[in-house]
Amino acid sequence: MFKEEIQAWRYGPVCPAAYKFYSDFEAKQLPIPRQESLSGLPSEKKELLAEIWQYFGNYHAYRLSDMTHAEFPWKKARKGLPPEESSTEPILLDDMKALGYQKLDLIEQEHPAYKAAMSEVLKEALATESSHPIGKGEVHDWLNSLLD
């Protein structure tokens, strides 16, 4: 969504430029963006932001902070620092992407139709002869090819 660095601050991940921009609000809740202010964004980004807001919008800041402290990108960037220690260590984009893929997999698996759909996909796949065996680390790609 943006290219600025995200750092592993004491209370969670922070984009310093965004922090500075919104610093006048201090501990007050930020205003909900008006639809007009999002008009320049591509529709897929608007949809993503809407989903994020729908899922996380009602969480209190302390709950969001606790959630980020449990995730590996923040922990990795802090390199074992005590919770009260300040830090400006960057959180790696690759780590955030990996976390995002993990979260998407979990969301997909929690869908009510997931088990039945996967059962059907596997039955169909196992009923056909394969021209080559699936190698180590290829199961995820194989499953994706079946779903395409």
Automatic annotation (TrEMBL):
Residues 1-75 form the Antitoxin SocA-like Panacea domain. It holds the Pfam family SocA_Panacea. It comes from the Bacteria. This is Putative prophage protein.
